[in-house]
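Milestone M4 deliverable, item 7.
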Amino acid sequence: MNKFILGIQSYASHDSGAAIIKYNTKTKRSEFIAISEERLLRKKYPYTFPLLSILYCLNYFGLKDLKKINLLVSDWIREKKWHRSGPSYDYSMFDYIKKKLKLNPKKIIQIDHHLAHASSVYYTSDFKKSSILIVDGNGSDIETNSYFFGSENKIKLLENFKFEGIGTLYKEVSKSILNFGTGGEGKTMGLAPYGQKNNNIFIKYRLKGIETYFTQFLKRMPHSDILNHLNDKFRNKFININFKKRKKNQLPLKIHKDWAFAIQKLTEKVMIHLSNDLFKKTKNKNICLAGGVALNSVANESIMGQKNFSNIHIFPAASDSGVPFGLALWGYHNKFKAKKRVNFINAYTGIKYSNELIINLLEKNNINFLRTTPLEIAKLISEGAIIGHFNGASEYGPRALGNRSILADPRKKYLRDYINKYVKNRELFRPFAPAVLKEFSNLYFGIKDSPYMLRVAKTRKPFKIPAAIHIDNTARVQTVTKKQNERFYDIINEFYKLTKVPCVLNTSFNGKNEPIVETPEDALITFLENRIDYLILNDFLVRKDHLSIINRNRLIYTLKNERSKRITANINLALNKLCKKTNIQEYKRNKYKFQRKAIYHSIIKPVDFYRKFFKKINLKEKILILGEYEHTKVLLNIVTIKKHQRQNIDYLPIDKNKGKISLNLVNSINKKYDKILLSTYNYCFYKKIGNIEIKKTFFNPYDNSTRSIEDYFKFKKYNIFKKI
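Output delivered:
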């Protein structure tokens, strides 16, 4: 009667994790658990197989191993297959562990990455029908923008677009120009209000329906493969213009602020365009948003400002961290035909840690504690204390929503800079969020509902909550109800009774470059390491001033050492439970084998294609090369075209003619050609270039995992090809 559906991603993602849905086919009841690997591994963006996440989910349901799993639903990235879905990716331990899983391959199904995003947001909404917009960096076959329509429990793909998207553009500006590193898009969004329109910054773009083109500014994807990992020399510059990169520890200058402003405004424009286009095609007043770009809460609100949609639902784990849950949901509704939606009333998808466990932790480490109440917590906040609040199950996604939060008084303006500098140890331009009682949200922010902190609104009473609003008087709002989180609601309500202000400052409970805390032990370590005055662990309160500095340092060392040992033990336990016997020598042999294949696929395969093409043509065939000047110049350097063959080869440039090509130059396709060969990397996926329709019959050496032959020509002086 009980069916278990496991959702995990098929490739090494920075947002690795797992989710399991338990479905009783007799009672029709469902239960779920979901977690991101970084929370358990204590490492941000780990790119590791979700061993700890799977073990965590199995333990929740009392499952010893994978035997009771009825269905594993996964996505795919470049090729729709379970092993090596990304053929040009580096071979990692992720690939090896996946190969060793003790799971019948017949239980595994794969769906498109964007369909997993769509499932995560539509099936957790209460809409019977809805438009669904997915926008992210890239997914299966480099999809970037997708339109879906949900009706009852069916999701239909309307159309999608590939290779270029605002998600990748935003990431590249954040990473390459602003130097904010992996996951730095949130920093860019925070910096944007400090900038202004700068006429020296111009990002050329073209929007046409679902299609979003940035070709003249940004090289098309893919932007990552094995070569990136072999040597930094093989990392391409993907932005086509000259720019001055911000130094790592440099405070953002005016130009950096203006870059953040420019990319943020363009993102809002693109999201408005896509949502308006989707509305024209569906005429439905409900919209669901997911994909990494849906974490851009300013852009989300700009969609609602267009008045096309009356209702919006954004999945709290809108980025790839939510994909495992979306995968499990798709299997639940589409393979097991469940009609009743899961009971997703809040984002607290983790396990709950008992008071008994917390008491044991505190007593074991000789830490004094007291029982506490929402009123006492609210009183401490109103007196200016900074509270590390740990309670109940952890939140799914990147936003802390009360259960793993640092709380403070929004009325005290100085706390904004103090918390950034001394508690979070981060840039002073980073904003915080107000968590507000839902019944006051319209009065303070002009919006009725934003449960997952994914909508930004102008603050109507900025003078009352200066610490929780941004420089432009906006706030990333979290609305709180008693039904969603009774404990958090009671704290804010007690704070309101004391201060007449119905919200508190809320930011995620984590240290610099760390994931949000998951366990009571994580919370205790972060509390001890940072300038947090009080720690709340469920019903108990710990005071910082009751611990001497010597005791704190000793505790930090002891707790971190114990945690590290436990993580290692859990990884080994998970390997034994989930996998066949692993062998490091076998892994190394596989790595060598698949690295060679990946290098070939990424950079040598298109060269071989071109060489074979010209080797096979006969003297009677009329050939047209349709291409870019630089690419075609390289092409003629790496292939052998005999003099008598050139007489039957025409060249039609698709960009401005920058120089002479030693072929017959033509201005149009005005005669019958036996073969038409594409000599372009950036435009090879276009349906139309100018007035020329690109047909499937045209010969094209590139796929979604290959690099340009220009890279081959540039890098062949190095010895990377000796592996082949």
